[in-house]
Design brief:
By secondary structure, this protein is mostly helical. It contains eleven helices and six strands. The strands form two sheets. Strands 1-3-6 form a three-stranded parallel sheet, with helices on one face. It has a three-stranded mixed sheet with strand order 2-5-4.
Length: 285
């Protein structure tokens, strides 16, 4: 066994290249990624690069990965990204302070092992913001112009579970029922990302993570109610269904999302994250 553990949040190109080098030298039969979304993404890309002998810039984008990597087993320790079941990895180009996405069916893991007990020791804060990440996946997939019926079912099921069980998981990390429900919801939301993927919340969140190192789920939680409010006039019927999944009074999904961020403590403001008014044009660009 060879262990690589130098993965930071929003994994930079350099860390994934170091992982790739160790894999090439060791020549594994199988690569097991255990951790949060950053670890899982780095595992998928590192295992692929080591076999395909290509460079990260050449595979950035959609369907640019030439083939599969070493066999992978992904084991999430958070209930958030759903990366264990997605064809997506997001890395940080540290030279340009931007996040780059790689999307390819060749990145889908050979096996995913989802054990809610591995989330029991996750502290309340990352429990909250990774859960809000999963909620964002589900809401954005359900309201996407590319939505499809089967994915709609996954998304609504995830929304129902997250609204009911995320506050419980944050309040009591040892609540295994809540942890199991959140692990399943995260997986279902992750299954939305291959066929449909995300939208404006994630697009706006990426520069917050790359330039200001805001945790991905924190950025999503901050932005979600505002993007929902912006989109509401053109997808009101879809937001009514989301509101019903959230048990929201008056079919008000936007307020329900805002209230959930307040319940779990992710209701942050840009200024509270060290971001000034003068930074907005850079983020917008």
């Amino acid at each position: 066994v060879s262990i690589f553990q130098d993965i930071s949040p929003d994994p930079p190109f350099t860390a994934v290249e170091a992982c790739r080098s160790q894999l090439e030298e060791f020549g594994p039969h199988c690569v097991v990624g255990i951790g949060g979304g950053s670890v899982l993404d780095a595992t998928k890309v590192g295992a692929m690069l080591a076999v395909q002998k290509c460079e990260i810039p050449s595979v950035i984008g959609i369907d640019r990965v030439p083939g599969r990597g070493f066999p992978t087993v992904l084991v999430p320790t958070t209930a958030g990204t759903g990366s264990e079941v997605t064809p997506i990895a997001v890395l940080t180009d540290e030279k340009r302070d931007v996040k780059r996405g790689i999307v390819s069916p060749h990145l889908v893991a050979d096996h995913a092992i989802i054990d809610p007990k591995l989330c029991l020791s996750l502290p309340p804060w990352p429990t909250a913001y990774t859960g809000m990440d999963a909620l964002t996946h589900a809401i954005e997939a359900y309201t996407s112009t590319k939505s499809v019926p089967l994915v709609d079912d996954f998304a609504l099921a995830a929304i129902r579970s997250i609204v009911q069980y995320l506050p419980r998981a944050v309040a009591d990390g040892s609540d295994l029922t809540a942890r199991e429900a959140m692990s399943r919801a995260s997986m279902l939301a992750g299954l939305c990302l291959g066929p449909v993927n995300t939208a404006a919340v994630h697009a706006l969140a990426y520069p917050l993570g790359a330039r200001f190192h805001v945790p991905h789920g924190v950025a999503n939680a901050l932005l979600l109610p505002h993007v929902m409010d912006f989109n509401l006039p053109v997808v009101a019927d879809r937001y009514r269904e989301i509101a019903r999944a959230m048990n929201a009074p008056n079919d008000d999904a936007v307020t329900a999302a805002q209230e959930l961020t307040e319940r779990v403590g992710t209701n942050k403001r840009l200024r509270g994250l060290g971001i000034e008014q003068s930074d907005i044009p850079i983020l917008a660009a």
